[in-house]
Write a structure and sequence with these properties.
The complex is a heterodimer of chains A (342) and B (588). Helices cover 72% and strands 8% of the residues of chain A. Chain A is of the alpha/beta class and 342 residues long. Chain A folds into two domains: 2-43 and 161-341, no CATH class; 52-148, D-Maltodextrin-Binding Protein, domain 2 (3-Layer(aba) Sandwich), CATH 3.40.190. In chain A, β3 and β4 (109-116) form a beta hairpin. In chain A, α6 runs antiparallel to α8 and α6 packs antiparallel against α10. Chain B has 588 residues and is mostly helical. Chain B is 64% helix and 5% strand. Chain B is built from 23 helices and seven strands. Chain B has helices at residues 3-20, 23-43, 62-69, 80-84, 102-126, 128-131, 195-198, 217-227, 230-245, 250-255, 260-286, 290-313, 317-339, 352-361, 369-392, 396-399, 405-414, 422-445, 450-478, 486-507, 519-525, 533-558, 561-587, and strands at residues 53-57, 73-76, 90-92, 96-98, 134-141, 158-159, 205-206. The chains are: A alpha/beta (342), B mainly alpha (588). Chains A and B meet through α2, α3, β2, α4 and β4 of A and α2, α3, α5, α6 and β5 of B. β2 (76-80) of chain A pairs antiparallel with β6 of chain B.
Chain lengths: 342, 588
């Protein structure tokens, strides 16, 4: 009959979280981060948006190859002027967005770019200039490769979608790991609070065994992060961000949560005061995440691959590793922590 | 406030904390730092984007080597079935086939970069000069916004041919969206489409790959280093404040012959000093000067004050954890978002971090002095208000109970109220806050097109302002400072509105830094319109009427309880938005 009691303790923990409406705050935090990140992407992408209008270049000098490289694109318009002077004057008068002064020597092409300073369009202009000059560079390389008998590959046409990389490699890992960090923190708080308020003795006097108390205090925290992860994955899918392997992803999150919660609770049992416990916990968890970057695949990269659908056998091996680490750390913490209780 | 008492409490605080952080704790922290430092070199190898995209390519294909060399790509056996099932993003057969989704697009952009790098590498083996045949230097010039005079422009002698010429791009594989493109080769494997593509390093010369829009990426990352360690200080501070509230421990201190302001100041000073020392240390490490430290002071204050209020309101450690994380996220975004635009747009002046970024860039022109005032003043005033708000509940009656957070907040506001005129005082207090929140909204919205951002901003601004004006009236009614009747409601609303109006006028100092060059900034401040003096005078006083009327509406609701307050608030917001839209319509 021990497990229903354990369950009751866990329910009490959950109820206290619900009563304080802190879970709501947790969701608000994540929403804030998501909004912040999507602002970063949407806001900055709009600065680069090719649809934001054509960029007018005023060119002068040896412009034949430049014109060839520029052909076939709608995002810019290159006009050639007689000399440096006229191109620059046109630019200063507002007749062009930027100036490209091209000078060809025997084996290289030198380009001077004049761009306006402190303008929202500067980003767009400089990006377009770089894109154009990269095309010029490709054409030059192709010519040189033929001359030098080098096997060069044709450069495929491709415009990046900054949303994709950022969403999967940065946003999804952040959304998956932040709740984990908070979960461990709550577990630690939940234990130190019992010490500070002097209510732990009441728990000890209950017929619960020490490991059962440990389980009861931590169960809610272990469940919280994966639950939040499920919510976020659902939201992402709803927002047309397909998540390729949700199940391994959740296994990974649960494993790391078990590590964080076990560690957090054990630290709290050891130090008994919030200040030290939180300090040691934060340093430890940050250290843990930093250490995962020494693995063949960093934790964030594993999440990105699982979410984007580029997982390999190695990726799944990492997931299994986190699951094992989770169980191991939790069991050790429970043994160690249980002893601290009595 | 007596300095000696404050310092004595500070000394207690320090000795208690230092005693708490014993050798074991520090030993553990040092161990972790050593471990992390040991793996740091490996960590930078494992990039976030590694092998995120899958390319199907034969081993003997030229692209195979290109893909192998790219961190972000993984080469697999080409197969049509794997391509159509989505396991391969780009399939290289006779032609290049790209999966018809965002991932495919991102993958082919990576492949483009990989091919370019491969070509450069192959050429470099034969002739290093041939690898980078184009060199670029970019110069930024100030250009007058004046419209061009007809005589100033010249006719071009030639133009590029337009897109009819299909031969020019026979490599085209169907994906035709020129976009941001960059290759940051600094050890992180950021792909063109990712973070590196968004936030470049602002390169000025080199190969075409090297030039980048003026985003101060490195400086921003370094500026971030100022914020992260503060979290540790804030955590300790919040625990210390919270501990006073557990088991009525704070009673002893409250019963002693010191004022509660002295207690709060005494408890805060050591943490402020620690945070300042941390900031100075970070500045020394990352190469910032005194400017960075000065600029960070308002950030420290707002961090500590928000945490203080959070710790006064929270009911348990668990709740406190959420509150501190929330505070940290809010403060970070408030200072971080505008700082991204440091070199591009005056909107950056909102954030003290922009000054730090400028300082770290060691730019020829340091941030203008007005930036310190503009970014710092709202934060300093807001933190003063927050400390005052928190001290309002630092009393035996409120400190130890387990009431809910909104209740505590209302009680704290009510502690400011004495007479009817007090509501005006509260409204003035809240102006810097309102201003700070509106600046955050401006920073988040300004990149959107004006048609979208302006209406959104109007609604957000109206909600924030109306809440700020009416919360004192509501608190007054809820705590029976004022008698609940309609006459009182109207009078209090008018007083509160007038107070807000006065405070708002002070906030218009903002013009100093030229935020009014930004359309949405103008809307935020309601200044900078180019109209006749008569209209200007009307415009100057019209807000007074608006604020008074809207606040009275909300107040009428407030004297009818919580639900009535909500209804009144909605009515006030509607009136406010309608007014704003009319004014914009009138002037534009």
């Amino acid at each position: 009959m021990r497990s229903p009691r354990r369950l009751r303790l866990a329910t009490r923990e959950l109820a206290s979280l619900r009563a304080e409406k802190t879970v709501v705050l947790a969701l608000v935090i994540q929403l804030f981060i998501a909004a912040f990140s999507s602002f970063l992407v949407v806001g900055l992408v709009s600065l680069y948006d090719p649809g934001a209008g054509e960029v007018e270049f005023a060119a002068a000098g040896d412009t034949d190859e430049l014109l060839e490289a520029a052909a076939g694109q709608d995002s810019w318009d290159v006009s050639v002027y007689e000399d440096r002077e006229t191109a620059t004057t046109t630019f200063e008068g507002g007749g062009a967005d930027a100036v490209l002064l091209v000078e060809r020597t025997d084996d290289s092409v030198d380009v001077d770019v004049l761009a306006p300073r402190g303008d929202l369009r500067t980003t767009l202009i400089v990006t377009a200039a770089r894109d154009l000059l990269e095309r010029l560079e490709d054409a030059e390389r192709e010519r040189l490769a033929a001359e030098l008998n080098v096997d060069a590959v044709p450069v495929p046409e491709g415009g990046a979608s900054p949303y994709h990389g950022f969403t999967y490699a940065v946003l999804v890992p952040v959304l998956m790991f932040l709740p984990v960090f908070i979960s461990g923190s709550i577990a630690s708080d939940s234990v130190t609070e019992e010490f500070e308020r002097g209510t732990l003795d009441l728990l000890r006097a209950s017929p619960l065994s020490d490991p059962a108390i440990f389980d009861g205090k931590t169960a809610a925290a272990v469940a919280l992060a994966p639950a939040q992860a499920v919510l976020w994955l659902a939201l992402l899918v709803f927002n047309d961000v397909p998540i390729s392997s949700p199940v391994p992803l959740l296994v990974l999150v649960t494993g790391i949560t078990a590590v964080a919660v076990g560690f957090g609770a054990a630290v709290a049992l050891q130090f008994r005061e919030r200040k030290q416990a939180q300090f040691v916990y934060s340093v430890g968890v940050v250290g843990f995440f930093a250490l995962t970057f020494a693995l063949p695949e960093s934790s964030a990269n594993t999440v990105a691959k699982l979410a984007a659908g580029s997982a390999t056998t190695a990726t799944y091996a990492h997931v299994a590793g986190y699951a094992v680490a989770g169980v191991a750390v939790y069991l050790i913490a429970r043994r160690f922590g249980g002893r601290k209780l009595s | 406030m007596r300095l000696r008492k404050v310092l004595r409490i500070s000394r207690w605080e320090v000795s208690r904390t230092a005693g708490g952080l014993d050798r074991r704790t520090l030993g553990f922290a040092i161990l972790v730092f050593v471990l992390v430092a040991a793996v740091a070199p490996f960590a930078f190898d494992g990039g976030l984007y590694d092998e995120l995209y899958v390319v199907g390519v034969e081993d003997d294909d030229g692209y195979h080597e290109a893909v192998e060399r790219a961190d972000t790509l993984r080469a697999v056996e080409p197969s049509w079935s794997a391509f159509s099932s989505g396991d391969i993003d780009v399939l290289v057969r006779d032609d290049i086939h790209v999966a018809d989704d965002q991932k495919g697009e991102a993958a082919v952009a990576e492949l483009r970069d990989a091919a370019r790098r491969y070509n450069a590498g192959e050429l470099a083996e034969k002739d290093p000069d041939a690898a980078f045949p184009v060199s670029v230097e970019i110069n930024y010039v100030d250009r007058d916004a004046e419209p061009a005079e007809p005589g100033d422009t010249f006719e071009p002698v030639a133009e590029e041919e337009d897109s009819e010429d299909e031969d020019a791009d026979d490599d085209d594989d169907g994906v035709d969206a020129p976009d941001a493109e960059e290759d940051v080769d600094d050890g992180f494997s950021l792909p063109s489409g990712g973070l590196g593509g968004i936030i470049g390093q602002g390169g000025r010369s080199g190969t075409p790959d090297d030039i980048a829009p003026p985003f101060p990426f490195e400086s921003l990352i370094l500026a971030f280093a100022f914020l992260v360690p503060l979290n540790f200080v804030v955590q300790a501070y919040s625990t210390s404040v919270m501990n006073e509230r557990i088991g009525r421990r704070g009673v002893l201190m409250l019963a002693s012959p010191v004022s509660r302001q002295e207690i709060i100041a005494g408890k805060t000073v050591p943490y402020f000093a620690a945070a300042l020392a941390l900031v100075a240390a970070v500045a020394a490490v990352v190469g910032g000067g005194w400017r960075s430290v000065v600029a960070m002071v308002p950030v420290l204050l707002i961090f500590l004050s928000l945490t203080f209020v959070g710790a006064m309101f929270a009911r348990s450690y668990k709740e406190l954890t959420f509150v501190t994380v929330f505070v940290s996220v809010v403060v970070t975004s408030y200072v971080f978002i505008p700082a991204i635009f440091t070199d591009i747009d005056p909107v950056a002046a909102i954030s003290p971090l922009s000054i730090v970024v400028r300082d770290l860039q060691q730019a020829a022109s340091a941030a203008p002095a007005s930036w310190y005032v503009f970014s710092g003043a709202p934060l300093v005033f807001s933190s003063a208000v927050l400390f005052s708000l928190g001290s309002g509940v630092y009393r035996e009656e409120e400190m130890f109970n387990q009431r809910r957070v909104p209740h505590k907040a209302v009680a704290a506001v009510a502690s400011w109220l004495r007479r009817r005129a007090s509501v005006a005082k509260v409204s003035v207090f809240l102006v810097p806050f309102v201003f700070a929140i509106q600046l955050l909204v401006v920073a988040t919205l300004f990149a959107l097109p004006v048609e979208v951002s302006l209406p959104l901003f109007f609604v957000a601004a109206a909600v924030v302002e109306e809440v700020a004006k009416s919360v004192s009236v509501y608190a007054g009614f809820a705590h029976s400072v004022f008698e609940r009747n309609d006459r009182n409601a109207v009078v209090l609303g008018a007083i509160s509105g007038a107070g807000f109006f006065v405070g708002e006028k002070f906030a218009h100092l903002a013009q100093l830094v030229g935020l009014d060059t930004l359309e949405i900034g103008r809307a935020a401040l309601g200044v900078g319109f180019d109209v006749s003096p008569l209209v200007l005078v009307a415009l100057f006083f019209a807000p007074l009427v608006l604020h008074a009327v809207a606040a009275s509406l909300a107040a009428l609701g407030a004297c009818r309880g919580k639900r009535g307050y909500l209804v009144g608030l909605v009515a006030a917001v509607v009136v406010h938005v309608a007014y704003n839209l009319t004014v914009v319509g009138l002037v534009a």
